[in-house]
Each structure stands twice: as C-alpha cells, then as structure tokens.
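S.,

As promised, the adenosine-5'-diphosphate run. Input:
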Amino acid sequence: MLNIVLFGPPGSGKGTQSERLIKQFELIHLSTGDILRAQIAEKTKLGLEAKQIMDKGELVPDNVVVGMISGIIENNKNAKGFIFDGFPRTIAQAEVLDKMLIIHSTNVALLLMLDVEEEVLIKRLTLRGEKSGRKDDVDINIIQNRINVYHSQTKPVLEYYQKQGKAFQINGVQTEEEVYSDISKVMSKFVK
Ligand code: ADP
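Predicted complex:
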C-alpha cells in the first residue's frame, strides 16, 4: 500500500491536491472533514454533535475521528493505498494511525505539507465562505480560531513525521498546477 498524509493549515489546498493524487495513483481519499460533513447532512447523532464543534472551529474528539477512519481502512484491505486529508490532526491521532496501519502490515510512506502563510489562508477561506456558505469559512473569528488550533494541536504532527524522516514541504502559494508539479517530483521518489 502507498499511504500519504496530505498536511497543511485550513485553506492550504489539501482537498484540491488530493483529487489529483487519487486520480493519478488510484488511492482512496479519506477526508475526515468530508466524512463529518456527510454525517451532518444525514443528521446522524454523530453529525449533530460534530456540528456544534466544527461551527466553532474546534477539533472533534480523537476517538470520534479515529472510529470513522478505522472502519474505512478495515473495509478497504485490498486498496492500493490511502490519502489521508485533514487527518491526523493531533499527535494522538497520528499514533493511532501508525498502529492501525501496522496491523495491516503497512505504514505512512510520506507526509506532504502544503505551506501557505496566514494572510493567504485567511483570504482563501473568506472567499470560499462567500461561495459555499460553509459556516466555519464565513466568520473571520472562526477562521482565526481554526488557524490557532492548527498551530497548537496540529502542527506537532508535522514534527512527528519529520522525526521519522517522512515529511516533505511544498510551497502552496503557487498555481494548482505548479503545486501538483512539485508534489509529483516528491512522488516520483516513491513510485517508479
Ligand atoms: P479545513 O482543513 O479547511 O479546516 P476540514 O474539512 O479538513 O477543513 O475540517 C473541517 C472541520 O472538521 C475542522 O475544523 C474540525 O472541526 C473537523 N475535523 C476534520 N478533521 C478532523 C480531525 N482529524 N480531527 C478532529 N476534527 C476534525
């Protein structure tokens, strides 16, 4: 399996680049944000609880997201690999992911970090909010809170994978094509 963590602050372009990666490498896209929004749309109990948290820009509890992810890995044992988009977002999630993958005799091959400065993130998220109406993108205070949460709780995940020698930083302030071209250069080291 080829398992990739696509990492970066909110608005760094993870979703866009994931779409390209899954097409080219036939991987399964696992976006915890998308799964949670699907739960909200279906008005499940989990979805209703998650909505309160997401609307504030806080993180949903680790056990909730881990539960969602483990089921999907379990049901796709023969997949070529996964793209984890928006997960892991805490060190605890990263540790559980490593353990889950070991059980399936696989691991995280690499982490791609989309590097985008705060000013650009805020502009992109505000614009996205105007178009989509996504609640956590509409309010500047919530956007700012998500960026703060990224720095305090999520950024350590980058260091966790850096220590394993698996993290690659990509300049995310370029056109979508240019970002993907830089990603492709890294990918060519892993896929022959
Ligand atoms: P973005 O990267 O733009 O913040 P996401 O769709 O990845 O968008 O996440 C939206 C929200 O969903 C987050 O602010 C958080 O509340 C929740 N969420 C998504 N993934 C996770 C996760 N792995 N752990 C905890 N909460 C998560």
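The mean pLDDT is 96. Residues 69 and 150 are 20 Å apart (CA to CA).

- D.
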